[in-house]
Amino acid sequence: MAKATKKKSIGFFKFIKWFWILFGTGVVLVGLVFLLASWEAFGEMPTFETLENPQTNLATEFISSDGQTLGKLYLDDNRTPVSFNQLPKNLVDALVATEDARYYDHAGIDARGTLRAFAYLGKKGGASTISQQLARQLFVGIRAKDWTKYTQKIKEWVIATRLERNYTKEEIIAMYLNIYDFGYAADGIRSAARIYFGKEPNELRIEESAMLVGMLKNSSLFNPLRREELVFNRRNTVLGQMAKYDYITEQEKDSLQKLKMDLNFSPESHKEGLATYLRMYLQQSWLKKWIKENKKPDGEAYNMYLDGLKIYTTIDSRMQKNAEDAVVAHMKKLQAEFFVQNTKERNPTTPFLDLEKYEIDNIMERAIKTSLRWKALKAEGKSENEIRASFKKKINMTVFDWNSDSYEKDTVMTPMDSIRYYKTFLRTAMMSMEPQTGHVKAWVGGSDYKHFQYDNVIQGARQAGSTFKPFVYAAAIDQLRYSPCDSLPDTQYCIEAGKHGNMESWCPKNSDGKYSGKNRTLKNALANSVNTITARLIDQVGPGSVARIAKSMGITREILEVPAIALGVPEMNVFEMVGAYGTFANQGVYVKPVVVTRIEDKYGTVLYEYVPETKDVLSKDVSYAMVNLMEGVTQGGSGTRLRTVGHNKWKPEYDEIITGYPYELTNPIAGKTGTTQNQSDGWFMGMVPNLVTGVWVGGEDRATHFKSIRYGQGAAMALPIWGLYMKANYANEELGVSKEAFEKPSNLSINVDCTKVIKEMKDDLDTEDDLDDLDF
């Protein structure tokens, strides 16, 4: 009995001995494997410095003044990281419940899950922890399929444990969600939330978070746009896991699983979203110049596509949307009328007017040689004959179309026909600025950036027409101390040859070719764009004085110092015109328009801060007198239609494009319409005390225009956009757009009250028509 007991005892101790030998050997082997991995026996491993600062490509982000993302700039990775505290709890709960239930209990490797995976050969689930998945995303790469998958797994283990030592659990979760590619340029959770649901991560509902977590298994396979049912079921699996681990109740799970996937797919590309024209201007011009002039501390150049810069703009996203909506609403109607007037039956040379065949051929030739197709084929070494032949072959293409819900249609046409097709579309530009700060609040360079990429706000320059006249009036009031109440005769006026550099005698006519023969106040003359009185004024002050005032107000383009500039011959762009008019609204102080206030790097370090550029140009008295003059435009001149629908100045038989916009604005508004020769350009510059906005409408070529002034004037082409925009702004009181009167200087030395003057003038008049001319 004793011997048996002794044998059992020896056997037990033998078992214990071998158990510890095997256990110790296992520990040594595991330790050796980890040591070999750290010595890079299984491939390169990240350094300590790399673990501390893992490199990922980060998109540059354009941010509005009201804190909204306008868009991003990236090459391959549309990634903008968020911190853990910006993630909703339901998203973190869904992630842990689905991917790593014991996440908070392990140090990078889930021993229990690993043993289960070995025992069942992965049939009951894998063992990759969130830390391991992050390790693979950051440093290991695509999962291997041959024998190296085992060494890859070992590397994941080693890196995961290192990550756990360097980062908190919360930081690891944030890094993992920031690094994952959800497809459709949704790199990271912030882009995914915005692209799939049109919202920020912290706004995600439980079922939305569950869908995104479900995609982590394989975003290519679980694609909600292509495999809706598969993704729906996967989402419900995630909700089931959340209930299993008590993150939600069974009742919540059941109700959430019945909900449909409410996607709000909003792709983020360079050609879509808000303020596309401004973003492209910043990318291609402003930001490129800043990067060239500013280097990183180590001397390396910033990369606008990879370095995660944050560009804080002056744009207000709400006003920007109002501006874009106003442009679309009006241009769609205006274009429809233009198409009616330019059918082949009515105009055989459509879309061009008043041109001979050779002139049209020259326009088309220039368009061909400046096209992307010509440049691309030239770069490929194609001969000129081959290139020209390609312009005559019909191909499949997608073109712009106002009548489609997406403003696009698929068609078949030759590249030559497509050039002519696009020339039938009217173009537009609009910019809105706060005159006291120079902050640009809205910037619309065209109707649709995807199809019309020329930015007419800053790239384009067209004749200013009558919107240039305020510079003439400002010079006269400033130098000759004229007042809005002073009057001049509306009779034919000539400036002799040789005077002011004139090559020949200049005798401008009024737009209707008539002269009233009566005296008009300056306020009345500007409101009705009376050319003869403008000619008298520039003769008195000289073209040089007018040009100097315009340049001091921010106009950089060359202005030929001849009398004809009085009627708006100089070419201007909307950007500079808005800045110049801002001088009038800002009591004579010019503030250069600005679109970027600050730049930060990905760590929040401020790299750039805007310093205002200002200049005193006019006295407060002169600038207020000019505002008073331009208020006349909306009180009884070409801008009166802003006040109400069907005002007696505008005949009721005019159709919807003329009278169909019910603005009914009653607050003080100063402004000026402008129309150039042959109705090629229509302008409206409108001001309230804290917002100055300029609008231009015209064809790509001056030969593309309306045949008559009825539609071709600035009051019909451009003013409606301003009216729609301002009405939308006023509907949102949070924007704070002023309805008050312009500030009047305390000791105004220029008379702006024309009541007495008009009474004296009326005493000398007899007819009702005469009295109508003296409305103000």
Report what the structure shows:
The chain is of the alpha+beta class and 776 residues long. The chain folds into 3 domains: 54-78 and 277-352 and 427-463 and 570-745, DD-peptidase/beta-lactamase superfamily (Beta-lactamase), CATH 3.40.710.10; 79-267, Penicillin binding protein transpeptidase fold; 465-569, 3-Layer(aba) Sandwich (Beta-lactamase), CATH 3.40.710.10. The chain is 43% helix and 11% strand. The protein is built from 29 helices and 18 strands. The strands form 6 sheets. It has a 5-stranded mixed sheet, with helices on one face. The protein has a 5-stranded antiparallel sheet with strand order 7-6-18-17-16, sandwiched between helices. Strands 4-5 form a two-stranded antiparallel ribbon.
- Largest sheet geometry: 5 strands, mixed
Going across the biggest sheet, name each strand in turn. Answer: 2-1-3-13-14
CATH topology of the largest domain: Beta-lactamase
| Total DSSP E strands | 18
Q: Any idea how many domains?
A: 3
Low-confidence stretches: 117-124, 646-654, 765-776
Q: How far apart are the first and last residues' alpha carbons, in Å? A: 131 Å
Helicity level: 40-55%
Q: Quickly name the level 1 CATH class of the largest domain.
A: Alpha Beta
Structural class from helices and strands? Answer: alpha+beta
Shape: elongated
Secondary-structure blueprint:
Layout: H1 2-38, H2 48-52, E1 60-63, E2 69-73, H3 89-99, H4 111-119, H5 130-140, H6 148-166, H7 169-179, H8 189-197, H9 206-215, H10 228-244, H11 250-257, H12 276-293, E3 310-313, H13 317-341, H14 357-369, H15 372-379, H16 384-390, E4 395-400, E5 408-413, H17 415-422, E6 426-433, E7 440-444, E8 462-463, H18 469-480, E9 487-489, E10 519-521, H19 522-527, H20 531-541, H21 543-552, E11 571-572, H22 574-585, E12 589-591, E13 596-600, E14 606-609, E15 614-616, H23 620-636, H24 656-659, E16 670-675, E17 681-688, E18 691-699, H25 709-712, H26 714-717, H27 719-731, H28 755-763, H29 768-772
Helix pairs in contact: 1-6, 3-9, 3-10, 5-6, 5-7, 9-10, 10-11, 13-27, 18-20, 18-21, 18-23
